[in-house]
Write a structure and sequence with these properties.
About 35% of the residues lie in helices and about 15% in strands. One of its GO terms (molecular function) is metal ion binding.
Length: about 375
Amino acid sequence: MISAEESYGGSWEPPLVQTISSFLKESSSPEGSRNIDGMKSYAGAKELQDFRRFTGLPLIDISRLLLGEDHPERRECEREIAVAARVWGFFQIVNHGIPAGVMEKMKEEQKKVFRQPFEVKMAGGGKLHSLGANNYRWGNPMATSPRQVSWSEAFHIPITDISRIEDETLRSAIETFANVATDLTEKIAGILARDLGAGGVYFRENCTARSCYLRMNRYPPCPFSPEILGLVPHTDSDFLTIVFQDGVGGLQLMRDDGSWAGVFPNPDALIINIGDLLQAWSNGVYKSVRHRVVASSEEERLSMAFFYCPKSDTVIQSCINPSVYRNFSFREYRLQVQKDVQATGDKVGLSRFLVQAMETVNTAATQ
């Protein structure tokens, strides 16, 4: 393996090498040995290196949604979306309405944003200075071991803040993506609601521009790959996520048997995935699937994600009874996730909100 210094560098890079090295600097000590063993067993090096194992993720042409409501091809498209949400929790869409030139321009502008000096990004300066310092993130400040470190950096951009971006080229590309993503999530949420015999009014009333956001991601070349992941395994804490990824690849999904399979990068497609809130709202019919990103040792990876979220006080209540999940607000869910991450370094998620789990706690409290 080449050294970190040879493959990773530049004034723009966050101190990820130093972070990992700090966990491993005393590899001869019992603690250091445990860290190294944990990296190897957690990552599954052989599996991560086998990029030939791609999953046959559904690819759906959504131009058919423009046809009349009763058109058989439109009905078939809606059926494919519902089946993909039930069986996979992930699917890809083409003919989504974002011109290829806009996506290419967005990648170019992303590179410029991330190529700014690390100190400038941390201080909230440069191209996105209007968003403030708190919008830039890197690694995982809560990590207590190498396996909890995400080899990545990102800018968190609330939808309502896009208009404040002063760089016209960057703002225009992001606005185009955000507008299309907003329209798509509303349509897909409506399709999935009707599939369960419910109306889409719930999503339109509770998911607004003030509650949704974008995340610009960069995964630098990782000299510790495949032991260190670009993004640690997780599920998304929203209703729906739309992702544009470049041609490098690295996104992997956990299958039902616990194995991981990669998503072959398609430059013409957007990736849609179900979030925790939609799984709870659908009473488990739609699947919020655990996923991760494998960092490349040679190439950087860029992506842009749109998160379709409700207002903080929105109550997530299953549209199917009896519900396996208790009612909870989006604020409560986020606070519980933050609490778990701070305590353990990992997200626990929906299992905290199972009715059965709550009954067990109440029974124990009365004994």
